[in-house]
Amino acid sequence: MRVEYLHLDGFGILADIDFSFEPGFNLILGPNEAGKSTLQQAILAMLYGFYSGGRVNSSEKDMHARYRPWNASQYSGSALVRSDGNKAFMIMRTFGKQEPETQIIDEQSKQNITADYSQGRRGHVAFIDQLTGLSNAVFQSVACVRQGQIIHISQSQAEDIAEAVLRLVDSATAEVSSRGALNKIASAIRTLGTERSKSGPIYRTRSDLAVQQRLRDEQKTILLGLQQDHDRLDELASKSAELLEDQNQLEHDIHVSEYLQLKNLLRRFDAVKNGQKELFEAAQAVKPKQEIHLQNRDTAIKFEQERKYLNERRRYLTDELRDLHAELNQTNEDLEKLPVEKSFWHNEDLNNFYELDAAWKRINSRTDGLNKEQTDIQSKLLAAGLTEKSMHSTQLSDSEIQAIQMQSDELEAQQAGLEDEKNKREEKRSFYRLIRTGMLFFVVIVVLFIVAILKLPDLQTVPLNHPFIWSALHYSLVILIVVLILGQISFRMKFRVVLDKIAADKNYLELKLKEYQASLQPYGVSTAAELIEQRMRCLDIQRINKYTDASFKEKREIESGLFSWLQKLEMAHITPENMQRAVMIFRRGSSLSKNMDELSTKIETCDNSINELNANLRELESDLRAIYLQAGVEIENLESAHAAFLEKVKAAQQYIKFMGELKQMQEIEQEMLAGRDSVQLQAQFAELKKEIKEQDLIEPLTPVKEIRRNLKLVLIQAQDIELEKARIQERIRERESKLPDLSEIEENIVALKSDLREMTHKRRALELAYETISEVAQQAHQNFAPRLSASVGRHLSTLTNNDYKQIYIDPSDFSMQVAHDKAKKLVPIDVLSYGTQEQIYLLLRAAVAELFSEQSETIPLFLDDPLAHADNKRQVSALELLQHLSETQQVFYFTKDPGLVHLLDETKLPYNLVKMPTAPEIVPYRWAAGTAFKEKSKEGD
Asked: 2-133+856-932: what fold?
């Protein structure tokens, strides 16, 4: 199959344009954004359309929208396709409508044959699919190479290509494949269902079988239940008789227990009555004559404890007040002994004096330090022999000092340079000496060798047999001696000149050094560092003198302020001793004055506390007397009255206790009688005594409450048994009325088991068919791999200069390995050069296309600038390969590189040149063996 002609009304950037293509190599040339990729997509769209015919997906819609015309109203086009049987078809597609349209026209009969092919939604017609046997995905995977993707085949593309190859190799139609058969078998297996599935015939049959088996088990369970019900009725009748006997015995035990309990109750009732009488008599004996409030007891005790605490606190404060007065008098005497008036301590601010004292001490310390530093510097200068005149002469400016320092540094640098030059000459001298020694050693070796030739009999034939070597030894010896002598003379002359220069430089440097030292003699120093140090010491003396003057001035100002304070202490001079004594006096007086103020405050506080205590005591004693008078206690003093009050409270508490116990016994009596009259209890006791015989008066071991509870349980059990008997009888009647015939259920079970066995065998047969077809498909995949390898291998040796002659292809993912003659092993193509990989993958695609062509149409190749990054040599090799492939199938090569035209012209390879338009029209050219292609006129024939 080949594409001969293409017309586009509007497709992306291309509008109202025609293209003509040749069966062989077509080179489409144009710059970037000229529409090369659009043209490639347009050809594919004319062949297959945008949609697969099934449910529309987003990628198809995006591709359809992407190539809408830029500057045209119609989104349509047509392509002339010619089959290998030389039959031409015109494919016309309109993409601009909501439902795209497709028409297939037979060019010979001019008939519309679209209906002869399967159709789908959105204008899908399986014309190319049926013509080539390839789907759109497989066609693009094999025939279309995007830019930079020549060596890339994805896993999904590999699977599609392998399936398509397998289908064609097996001579199947485009709609038949092993994958389709496997899908149908898998669908049938899913329809039948599995043991774990929740739907399908197997699941429904198994469910029905389970229902019938459950019904059969339920009927057997009903029969078993009837037998169990009859057995249970007999068991309940026996148990009912036993419960009746237990009921009679429990009722008898209850009568005996009631008799004995009533007897014990009457005895306890008599004891309670006697106790009530005794408690009443004791309460009347201690009953107080006057009412006493017991809540006053705690209040009285609290008030009495508080009164004792306040008296103790008052005694403590009185003693403390006496001590404070004594301490105040002693402090006043000490303060009057100080040499200043007493009013001084309240009128003067001593902080001013303390600040002046601190400042005076600080100035004294600083002045002493400056004097000591000045003395040290002067002693060092005098020790260095510097007089005041010489020190004055060192008062140089900074620029003068800097100039002297620069001169010193320059001399030192010249000295260092001279020493370096001298060291370098010594090193060169040692090197020349080493060379001279080596040459002497070589001369000695040559001389010894010559002597050995002249003296040793075995070597005396050398001059005769090898005269050239003998002459070379003589000349070499002479040359070495001459070179040694001349080199020694030259070295000595050069070294002498260098030594003279070094000596001259040294003399000049010594003169400069003497001039420099002479310039420093007026300052009494020999180096610039000593001059700088002497200048710094002079500057230090000036600084110290300045600071000393400022300190003396500040000290006089401070002493003028201190003098007024010392006059108050009758001190005439300011000395460290007087200042220390003044500070001690002021601190002592200030402390005593502050202490007197604190003592006065404490005395005042103590007086106030004592007065407050006296007031609280009077109020507290008044409250206590009121409590004692209310209780009828005579008050001679508070201590005795408190004791008498506690005695009366104790008696009142005993009375209340006796009355409480009496009330408790009355409550016990009421509880024992439980609302009954004692006379009635006596009559009931007499009646029970008559009914019960003496030999039956054996008290049961079980309490009566438990006996009553057991009787109640027995009655409940008897009632439950009767109810259960009624339920069982009703269930027996109901089960006997519903007993079905089990024969029908058994027949259903047998039929369902037969159906289930048949469907299971059918599923196993389908699974076996699936496994068999899978194995056959896998074997077929393995069989077509050698055919691919052989097809690629036919050209591999030529392309690689016989480096690689065989190739092995994995049909599952199209990975390849080549046999390397030198390495004697299989090499993955990933380790080969990128250019070699490109050529091998081109061969692979051509081989796949050749396999497709054996049973269907030849497949054109669409290459979008695959060699954009290759050098000229690789481009030439690839173009030769493509030219070779174009002999059997149509090749479309899209590129932006005009250099490919020159390469094709140089290599004399035939091709059809199609230039992308820069105007509305296009003029195609063909250069093939010097024959020009017919030009399509602008107006059209």
From this structure: Rossmann fold (3.40.50)
Q: Which of 608, 642, 620 is nearest to 314 (CA)?
A: 608
b/e code 886-925 from CB counts within 10 Å (16+ = b): beebbbbbbbbeeebbeebeeeebbbbbbbbeeeeebebe
**Considering the chain, what percentage of its residues have pLDDT values greater than 90?**
7
Indicate the pTM of the whole model. Answer: 0.40
- The tokens for 381 are 């200068």
Interval 494-509: pLDDT, tens: 777 777 777 777 777 7
Q: Tell me the CA distances in angstroms from 269 to 42, 263, 539, 678, 683, one per residue in order.
A: 124, 10, 127, 9, 15
Q: Which residues, other chains included, contact 175 with Cβ-Cβ below 8 Å and sequence gap of 6+?
A: none
Residue written as tokens 């050693």? 441
CA distance 670 to 674: 6
- pLDDT, position 778: 66
Relative to beta strand 925-928, strand 14-20 is unpaired
Q: What is the DSSP letter of 106?
A: E
- The 3-state DSSP composition of the chain as helix, strand, coil percent (nearest 5) reads 70, 10, 20
Q: Are 254 and 704 in contact (CB under 8 A)?
A: yes
| pLDDT, tens digit, 9 for 90 and up, residues 882-911 | 888 888 889 999 998 888 888 888 888 889
Average pLDDT over residues 571-593: 77
For residues 816 and 808, is the Cβ–Cβ distance under 8 A? yes
User: How many Cβ atoms are within 10 Å of 806's Cβ, its own excluded?
Assistant: 16
According to the model, what pLDDT value does residue 823 have? Answer: 52
pLDDT per residue over 46-102, tens digit each?
A: 999 988 877 888 888 888 888 899 876 789 999 999 998 889 999 999 998 888 999
What pLDDT shows up at residue 555? 72
Residue 785 has a CB neighbour count (10 Å cut-off) of 18
For every residue of 225-248, DSSP letters joined together read HHHHHHHHHHHHHHHHHHHHHHHH
What is the residue extent of each domain of the chain?
Answer: 2-133+856-932, 328-378+544-613, 396-523
Residues 6+ apart with CB under 8 A from 697: 256, 259, 260
